[in-house]
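>> received
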Amino acid sequence: MTDLAFFDPRILEKYNTSGPRYTSYPTALEFNSQFTNQDFTDAIEKSNTTDLSLYIHIPFCHSLCYYCGCNKVVTRHADKADDYLDYLLQEIKYRASSCSNKVIRQLHLGGGTPSFLSKEQLTRLIVCLKQHFDFAQNAELGIEIDPREIKTDLIDHLYHLGFNRLSIGVQDTNPKVQKAINRPQSFGFISDLIARAQTVGFKSVNIDLIYGLPHQTISTFTQTLEDVKVLNPDRISLFSYAHLPSRFAAQRKIRDEWLPNAIEKFALMKLAIQQLSEQGYDLIGLDHFAKPYDELALAQQQGKLHRNFQGYTTQKDCNLVGLGVSAISKIDNVYSQNHKQLKDYYQAISQQSQAVEKGLLLSKDDKIRQYVISELMCNLSVDKQQVETLFDIEFESYFADALKSLVVFENDQLVCNTQQQINVAPKARLLIRNVCMSFDAYMKNHLNQNRFSKLI
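>> returned
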C-alpha cells in the first residue's frame, strides 16, 4: 500500500484516545472468578470445532527490557525453566485428555522469551506436546526469539523439532535507543539468524518493531527501517510504545523527556508505514505488514483474516487453548485465563493439574458485538444483513446507540453507514479501534481509568 491518505495529523490527533486492542471481545478486563475449570472443560467437550491452535506461555527472560508490559519473570537461572516445565507438562497432559478428538493446526510459543529454554528443554516440551496432542501434518509451529542470548545453531534445532515460523524481537537498531530500553543487541547477528532460518527452510520470518521509544527520531528510525530492508523478513509487526509507568514499574526507568511528543510520534508512524509500503509490504489490519505472497496478506485479500490474543492470524476456524502461566484460551463462546502469578500457577497445578483462575461465558449480546468488532478489525466493514441472519436481530434498532456514536466519524468522512453495510474508509484504518469502541457495551465502565493504551 502506498496511499497514505489515512495519515491526517488533524484527524489522528482528534481521535487519539485510549482504547482496547480488541484481540478479544469482551476484553480480559471482563473475565470473572465465578468461571471455573469445569465451565472450560465442558466447552471443549461440547465444541463441534475440531481444529485447535495452541498457545504456550514461557514467562522467563534473561534481562529486563524497560518498555515491556508482558507477564514475565527475569532470571539468569536456567534451572527455573526445568521447574516450570515440570508443571507445564502436567497441565499439557491434563488438558490434552479433553482434546482427544481435536487436531492441532497451529502452535505458538510466546512470553517472556521462549528462547530462554535450552535445546534440551525445548525438545522436552515439543516431545510432550506431540505425544499428547494430534498435530496436523502441515501444522504451523511458531516461536518468539530474543536474539541476545542464543547461538545461530538454535535455528537448526528448532527446525528439526518442527518449527516453521520465527518471530524475532528487533524493536530498534539504534544503539542509543537500545541502551535506553536496556536491550543492546547485534544487528549482524540478527541478520545471520534470519539468513539461517531462510536457508534451513522456515516458511516465514517475522520481526517486531516499536515506534515511540526513547530517543527515537526521524533520522534514527529511518536507519532502522533501512536495516529492516536488509533483513527482508516476510512479516513485520509494528507496535506503538505505550508508556504506562503507573502500571509497569520497569517503564519508570524511561524518562518522560526522552520520549518523542505526540507530533513526533505521528511522524515516526507515518515514516514506518511509508517506508515499509515502499519496500513491498502490505499493511495488514492496523499494525502488521506482510509481503504480498505471505499467507497473512492472502487472508486479508480473501476476507479470511482473524484476530486473537497473538494479533492477526490466518487460523480463523480454530479454537484456542492456552497453556502456562497467564495463558488465555477461547473455545467457541468461552474465554478462560490461567493464574498470572507463578506461585499461584504452581499451586493450582500441584493440586488440580490445571490453573484456570477466571474466564467468561459470552452472552448473546457479547457474541453479536464480538462478531461486529471482529469484522471491523479484520475487514474494515460489516454486512448488516449477514449479522441479522446470523443472530436473528434487526441491526438498526439493536445498535441504535452505537450507530448514533458513529455520526461523528461519518461527519469526518471516516465511516460510511448505509442500509446494507458499515464501511470504514481506508483513511480511517488507523482509527479502527476507535470505531470499534462504539460497539463495545463495556467501554463506559472503563472510561478515564487509564486501563488501555493510546490508539496511536
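>> The chain has a mean pLDDT of 93.
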